[in-house]
Amino acid sequence: MTDPTQTPSQKSSQDSDIPKTGWSRRRLLEIGSVTVTAAALATPASAKAAEQSEPADSSSPSSTSFYEAFTQPPVVASQSQPGNTYKTASLSMRVEETQFTYRRGNQTQTVDGRSFSQMIPGPTILLDPGDLISINLHNTLEGNPRCDREMNYPRCFNSTNLHFHGLHVSPSTYCIDDQPVLSSDDVLYTLNPGEEHKWCVWLPDFHAPGTHWYHAHNHGSTALQVSNGMVGTILIREPNEELNMVAATEDKVWVLQEIVGGKDGDVYASTNIFNQGKRGAVDPFFGVKGDFLVNGKYQPTLEMRTGRMERWRFVNATATPRGLLNLRLCKATGPDDQSTFYSTEELQDMYLVAVDGISFYGKPPEPIGPNNQRQPQRTGWEFAPGNRADFLVKLEPGWYKLLKSVSQGQGRSTKIQILAYIHVQGTDVGDEIPALVPGSFEPYPYLAPITDEMLSNRDENGKICPRKFAFSRQAPAGPKSYKINEQLYSGDCVNVEVGLNTAEQWELTTKSGAFHPYHIHVNPFQIVGDKVDPNGPDDATNWRWWDVIALPKDKIITTRNHFLDYNGVYVIHCHILIHEDQGMMYNVRVKGDGTPPCHSWDGHSPPQPCPDAKVVLAQGAKVCELETLCERPVVPECGSTFRHDLTH
């Protein structure tokens, strides 16, 4: 075993000793063969990762810094169970107060907050299409700070729930006598301190592979709990390595977090957003200080083989405006290179192959760096809170650094930071970036291109009548000042009503100076004119899929949305979560007879309930419903005339 504190001359450079830190078959079987329980997850994240990852074998930083090896969160893989034709990923977790400590150079930083079973980030859930996620969550927190506040104030900091961000699954919950008993991806459900609840989230057989995540999403406490660390990755596998393009050992998850501690809601204060919960820790140039971590570590070092292609899956698991960032890969002079400045010659290409968990099947990978044809992507990838981005990366020998640079959507409340170092060594493997991303959208009908003919929101002359959503902030910033269409969030009514299995065109804008990342649950959207292949056609067959997009001021972003397979109520909101908690969210209802919660569906035979759903249905459970329309529902608009007919 190699000592990670050795000097360069003391360490071996043999190719065979370069560590493998991906999803190896052996590692998956060891971790995923048992149901992960609260006890199994009680070890702090840094220690848990160390148990399940080989040590780095490379030149380490000198005594001026501390070597932290790049590691990944532990994995819970879906498993077959006797008598079942499907696989289940089972977790039992606790929401707990946590004191999280990480190394920053030769020092340590400690923050107080909340976590899933003492893990920051939480375990990665590894699935295949058609698998079931079964989670029992016990909220062990005590008390409920500021729960006497009204809606759209930061409030009820110890109430929580779960959102399965990016999954195309039911948004509903079962109730017995109006009491919730079993949920799918329902963020309107609230788990209060001292309570337990079960989630049964069943992916359809036709769910696309991709990189997604789960996180707390209780309105009023979402930003605080995500900033405390209550997040984890969901990874849906391709059926084989040929489609995934890399071996399992070269497949790396990067969870980017800004861990803001504190239990009293300081995360929402504009002068206190980034100070780890300690008042007065102010940087005179950039505002309040804060660190971004990768898989719970500060500036870890990833070891790579020369010429070996890896897949890097980034999850932007942040909650504040500082999560609007630009990812840049640059050359470094060595492990002690702390400079955040770079020249064009130092930039390296990372080849983008998926956005928000949806791959560019049949299209060329896009180099993000000096070889990009489109100017904004020549210097990095704009990356908003909630976004995911998958890159193929292969490098020449040497040292590199991944920078979190300034996004065009940020203001003064940020600073450039090195997220990680990459050390490349060994003989050249000679991997090649593929000309096209292998695979097809054909097995995934909910991702069929949304053509003009599919759009249902039209007037009597056939003209497209888009729904319009304007995100705005009322001065001064603070509680109840973040709005959509000049309305604050109301949890008791529906703002938007659409028909099941329809498609619509929407227009999104922001009227305030800051960018607002728009996010919709359950169904991703295409952006009109956002071409995957810059040399390809400008139509729906070549428009990129997203579920989060940062809205620039006074620019209209036109999206097309399918509302397929699942009926029920879910939300759209700003994914700067301190804005969402303070009013910037809407309820959307999909009307129709869709697939119920906790049911499988292959698109052909009738949906089948999971065992937990069978039990509650036998006890008289019904899907919980929110029926009331808000006084000013958002309706399609042609010119200045609203169409008020919401029937479908």
Keywords:
single chain, 648 residues, mainly beta, 7-stranded mixed beta sheet, 6-stranded mixed beta sheet, 44 strands, globular, disordered N terminus
Outline the structure in words.
This protein is mainly beta and 648 residues long. It is built from 6 helices and 44 strands. A hairpin with a 2-residue loop joins strand 43 and strand 44 (641-642). The termini are far apart. Mean pLDDT is 85; it is low at 1-64, 270-289 and 640-648.
Summarize, please.
This protein is mainly beta. It contains 6 helices and 44 strands. The longest helix is centred in the N-terminal third of the chain and has 8 residues, at 25-32.
Approximately how much beta-strand content do the residues carry? 35-45%
Low-confidence stretches: 1-64, 270-289, 640-648
Structural Rg: 24 Å
Compute the number of strand runs.
Answer: 44
- By helix and strand content, what is the structural category? mainly beta
Write the layout of secondary structure elements.
Blueprint: H1 25-32, H2 45-51, E1 75-77, E2 79-80, E3 87-104, E4 107-116, E5 124-127, E6 132-139, E7 163-165, E8 173-176, E9 179-183, E10 196-202, E11 210-215, H3 222-228, E12 231-236, H4 241-244, E13 251-258, E14 282-283, E15 287-288, E16 292-294, E17 301-305, E18 310-316, E19 325-332, E20 347-348, E21 350-355, E22 358-359, E23 366-368, E24 381-383, E25 388-393, E26 398-406, E27 417-425, E28 467-473, E29 482-484, E30 494-499, E31 502-510, E32 516-520, E33 525-531, E34 543-546, E35 548-551, E36 557-563, E37 568-574, H5 577-580, E38 585-591, E39 599-600, E40 608-609, H6 611-618, E41 622-623, E42 629-634, E43 637-638, E44 641-642
Parallel strand pairs: 1-5, 3-6, 5-12, 13-18, 17-27, 28-31, 30-38, 30-42
Antiparallel strand pairs: 2-3, 3-4, 6-10, 7-11, 8-9, 8-41, 11-12, 13-16, 14-15, 18-25, 19-20, 19-24, 19-26, 21-22, 21-23, 21-25, 26-27, 28-29, 31-36, 32-35, 32-37, 33-34, 33-36, 37-38, 39-40, 43-44
